Amino acid sequence: MRGSVLRSLIQLRARARWQRAPGRTRRAPPALPWTVRIQLFGLMATVGATTRRDGTPYFGGEERTDAELRLDGKAPVVTMRGSDWAWRGFLPEGADRNHSAAHVTDENAGLADGFPPAMVVIGGLDPLQDWQRRYADVLRRKGKAVRVVEYPEAIHTFFFFPVLPDSGRLVTEMKAFMDENSASEPAAA
């Protein structure tokens, strides 16, 4: 999956650059923005389906962190009300945000022996940044390889917006991380 996500992000960025290319005298074909939206939502749906299927954590807990309180209603994309709504849809009925699928930031986090190297991306304007840092800390304490990449001016899911400068920087960082870590993986038979 990780290669297809990166490929989709690169394609979206290339299309956005094409639309803004210097010297272009005509507008992009009307279907292009629609196509980009479909691909973006398809990518989000793919990530969402994978999240539900493989148990990828949706970081959180019942406690409200400093960043959640400080940035609620001030940062775009994520609000605590919206986040609570997403948790209700993600978690099993009757579970709260301390459920193991959401609350993976303490010593009870279950990590398989073969847990792969992880890259945790943190935006300085993301209300979930404290949870992301805690997750990286848990990985380190459990002896897992983790790279934390911080973008002080980035919002939650900034990588879905190719016009944001950090989006391109992240694609480069992701590629380097995958190249470094796939070199050590055994080839598939």
Structural notes for this entry:
Residues 24-56 have low confidence and may be disordered. The protein has a single domain, classed as Alpha/Beta hydrolase fold, catalytic domain (Rossmann fold, 3-Layer(aba) Sandwich), CATH 3.40.50. The chain is built from six helices and two strands. The radius of gyration is 18 Å and the shape is globular. It is mainly α and 189 residues long. A two-stranded parallel sheet has the order 1-2. It has helices at residues 2-19, 31-54, 66-71, 80-90, 129-141, 165-182; strands at residues 118-123, 146-151.
What multimeric state do the chains show? single chain
Mean pLDDT: 74
**Alpha plus pi helix count:** 6
> Could you tell me how far the N terminus lies from the C terminus, measured between alpha carbons in angstroms?
18 Å
Find the CATH topology: Rossmann fold
Q: What kind of sheet is the major sheet?
A: 2 strands, parallel
Strand content: 5-15%
Highest-level CATH class: Alpha Beta
Shape verdict: globular
- What level of helicity do the residues show? 40-55%
User: SSE string, helix = H, strand = E?
Assistant: HHHHEHEH
The CATH architecture is: 3-Layer(aba) Sandwich
Query: So, the CATH homologous superfamily?
Result: Alpha/Beta hydrolase fold, catalytic domain
Number of discrete domains:
1
The helix-and-strand class reads: mainly alpha
- With strands numbered from the N-terminus, the spatial order across the biggest sheet is 1-2
What's the number of extended β-strand segments? 2
| Radius of gyration computed on alpha carbons | 18 Å
Low-confidence stretches: 24-56
